Amino acid sequence: MNPPYNIKATADDLALRPSVNEAILHCYKNGYINSTSLLTNTIYFGDTINLIRENNCIINIGVHVNLAEGKPVSSFNQQNYLDENGNWDIQKTNKKFIILNKSTKIAFFKEICAQIDKALSVNISVVHLDSHYHLHTLPCFYNLFLQAAKQYKLKLRLAQTYNEGNYIKFLYRKYINNKFKLNNNHYSDYFETVNRFLKNNKIYSNNEVVEIMLHPDLDPLGKLTDHFDPGTLSEWIIFLEK
User: Fold this and answer.
1) Bridge partners of 192?
2) Which residue in 52, 118, 133, 196 is a FRET match for 40, CA 20 to 30 A apart?
3) Where does residue 80 rank: exposed (0-12), middle (13-18), buried (19+ CB within 10 A)?
4) Band of the pLDDT at 52, cuts 50, 70, 90?
5) Secondary structure (3-state) at 125
6) H or E segment at 46?
7) Looking at the predicted structure, is the pLDDT value of residue 60 above 90?
8) Per-domain residue ranges for the chain?
């Protein structure tokens, strides 16, 4: 069993915690996924690198840049985006309307690069770039991520490509996706949730690639689940088994 050739089934949050790593490895071995995104700022990074080295089925690895949880990797000096313990404060980084001054843009760009460099420094073959909680699609950040993608010659995850009913949001996402696609910096032609993909019934052309986002994990009983939307992974597996 494997995802269709034109689907990148990406498991986000590799290195989030041991149960996520175990679930992602299980999904690779069973052909449920063919892509993953690695967090480089967690305490499980070292163990995860060993996991990757010991299992050559873990392929198509991206860096899941984290500006939402945990500590920065660089000497990030913009304290107003961190909490009192030096961790990212998602209430401050996940805002639609932040205007960054020059020094703050430089600090965030250095952090993005530092997280990519951390993966590269242990000889991980990185092919794409995305972010925890999709912060790379925010107005204040998308150009920084696009710059990093170009600098490191990585493919960048699109913003979600379907209309959720908010036409302004849809047009904004279409605008930034067009910028991502302008120089062939995009990881796929479409980016959808499993639910949206299964309901869409869209016929894609042979050269169009769709990225599907998953969050494999193990529940307290050791059963495979999706830690973001518990039913999602089951629906995806049923689709693959048809």
Assistant:
1) 212
2) 196
3) exposed
4) very high
5) coil
6) helix 45-54
7) yes
8) 7-241
Calpha distance 150→144 (Å, rounded): 10
* pTM of the complete model: 0.95
Tokens of 158: 């699109």
Tokens of 157: 């995850």
Residue 133 contacts residue 96 (beta carbons within 8 Å): no
Phi, psi of 71 (to 5 degrees): -100, 155
Nearest to 67 by CA among 5, 129, 20, 6: 129
pLDDT tens per residue across span 74-94: 999 999 999 999 999 999 999
Question: Which of 46, 3, 1, 56 lies closest to 25 in space, CA to CA?
Answer: 56
Strand partners, 61: 36, 126
| CATH 3.40.50.10680 given to domain 7-241 | no
Sign of CA dihedral 191, 195, 200, 204: positive
Closest CA to 31 of 61, 2, 60: 2
